[in-house]
Amino acid sequence: MNVVQPSAPSLSPELIAKFRGIVGDKYAVTDAADIAPYVTEERDLFHGRSPLVLRPGSTAEVSEICKLASDHRIALVPQGGNTGLVGGQTPHNGEVVISMRRMDRIRDLDAASNTMTCEAGVVLQIAQQRASEADRLFPLSLGAEGSCQIGGNLSTNAGGIAVLRYGNTRELTLGLEVVLPDGRIWDGLRGLRKDNTGYDLKQLFIGGEGTLGIITAATLKLFPKPREVETAFLGLAKVQDVMALFAHARAATADQLLRRQ
Fold it and tell me: Cys-Cys link to 77, which of 27, 28, 95, 238 (CB 3.0-4.6 A)?
């Protein structure tokens, strides 16, 4: 069955030109065929519409985009790797898409303090590899790690297969840099393990799916790389025994238990 795509809402040529001036001609996408990958969910279940996809290369450009959009009451949808399966990254109502793919720098990796500062467009697998090269572990791991991005992981508070040992992305985050809807930049890129200086504002944005601001960078926790891994495959007579086994395994491994992919 052919799916009829709804037409994208109009955006004045003058406004498109202003947005184009922020990111450059190459990174302001208006052709319908080029926009299609940004408005279609990878299983082809969700189809959105947008008159414009912007691909900023810096926090300053994201800030200028948000200022202009706020001044003209234009709705925005920030997008990472477009790997979500619930349509949250899809511009259902013709919003302008802000793709974070170009913001893919790892700004800093400090093995001594076990921290890594990444921009939102860094692919999760790249973050894992860079940590490994420094003899460290970034434990967030999930099926889409080869294409999902750190900003999307943060915005959805991703869990992954190591969540029982290391927690959700929320527990792996020390600080954030966020562009607010009016274009102001909140710099909360702190790497402190103990920071009791006031409200923990980063928690408002983690899991917020871009509704309160656009995450542009994050300072993440790293861990010592495991030296040994033991794998066990167990069969149980009844499902009720799972929790007892799980509790026993956690105690026996000093809570180092991980689920393998």
Answer: 95
Cα 102 to Cα 151: distance, rounded to the nearest angstrom? 12
Distance CA 117, CA 199 (A): 21
The pLDDT score that the predictor gives to residue 130 is 97
| pTM as predicted | 0.88
Q: Identify the segments of the chain with pLDDT beneath 70.
A: 1-10, 259-261
Q: How far is CA 167 from CA 61, 204, 237, in A?
A: 32, 17, 29
- Which two tokens mark 116? 């890594």
C-alpha distances (whole Å) from 221 to each of 93, 167, 168 are 36, 11, 12
pLDDT, residue 108, reads 97
Q: Are 169 and 158 in contact (CB under 8 A)?
A: yes
Spatial strand order of the sheet with 53-54 comes to 28-29, 53-54, 96-99, 76-79
The confidence score (pLDDT) of residue 230 equals 77
For position 259, what pLDDT does the model report? 64
pLDDT at 9: 56
